Amino acid sequence: MLTKRVIPCLDIRDGRIVKGTSFANLRDAGDPVERAAAYEAQGADELVVLDVSATPDGREAALHTVEAIRRAISIPLTVGGGVRTIAHARALLEAGADKVGVNSAAVERPELITEIAQRMGAQCVVLAIDAARSASSWEVVTRSGTNRTGIDALEWACTGVAAGAGEILLTSFDEDGRGNGYDLQLIRAISGVVNVSIIASGGASTATHMVDGFEAGADAVLAASIFHDGVTSVGELKEQLRAAGVPVRMMEVEP
Q1: What digits encode the pLDDT tens for the residues 50-104?
Q2: Cα angle at 95 between 127 and 252, to 5 degrees?
Q3: Could you give the dihedral angle defined by the CA atoms of residues 30, 174, 207 and 224, in that order, rounded to the nearest 10 degrees?
Q4: Where is pLDDT greater, at 148 or 19?
Q5: Residue 140 pairs with which residues in a beta bridge?
Q6: What is the reported pTM?
């Protein structure tokens, strides 16, 4: 049985970790390099770094931050934020990212997914979908939640995977930062129409929320606030997940 992944997320603005609610009211949450190293030491399976101001500010994710984080960790690293071209995707990979996340620019030009996948491999392309509840489904939102696209999230997931995305980072805009658990209906809906790994994001604050996410169809769970605020550690969370019957990779203990 494949192990399930636990992935801390670092939302970066101006070289610092920030966290808010539904992508707004951001507060400082620490140094990204120090946090990255700590989370790997605690047993994180991967790390996601998102430059949350890159797209709104019209710039690319800071390469020096990626380089500094890579020097501090050895686990897989996904980086997103303002990725609009193959050149930028390549620069992120050369700076130390293993995968690049695409969101707003891919919605505007889906060919970007195909271009990156063909040049660098589908395993390098993570389609980040920020979904907000609409009348009967979920709507894709972009530009850190400020732009309502009118695009159905399920249709966009299918389009993105067909274009070459190897994984989906699925964030509930409505639940982000609220601590009430993932949008399980959203996870079930998306996992029912695509055949790639899904990382559940937005709203988890307990191991139970993560168990629910896995049962709904997620292959990995992402969280930020509970780690940044010291509510729990990655290791403690994994112990709770294992006790609940979830197969997770545990840190090896020195004899």
Answers
A1: 886 655 554 555 788 899 999 999 999 999 988 999 999 999 999 999 999 999 9
A2: 80
A3: -10
A4: 148
A5: 131
A6: 0.91
- Which structure tokens are listed for 98? 């293993």
Instruction: Using pLDDT thresholds of 50, 70 and 90, give the confidence band for residue 235.
Output: very high
CA distance 86 to 130: 22
- Sign of the CA dihedral running 26, 28, 34, 40: negative
Q: Per DSSP, what are the bridge partners of residue 221?
A: 6, 200
Active site positions, annotated: 11, 130
Q: Which two tokens stand for residue 204?
A: 């988890």
Choosing among 3.30.70.640, 3.40.30.10, 3.20.20.70, 3.30.1490.150, the CATH entry for 5-243 is 3.20.20.70
For residue 124, give the DSSP letter.
G
Q: Which of 69, 12, 20, 35 is nearest to 234 (CA)?
A: 35
Q: Would you report the helix, strand and coil content of the chain in percent, each value rounded to 5?
A: 40, 30, 35
Considering just the CA atoms, what is the radius of gyration of the chain in Å?
17
Identify the DSSP state of 180: S
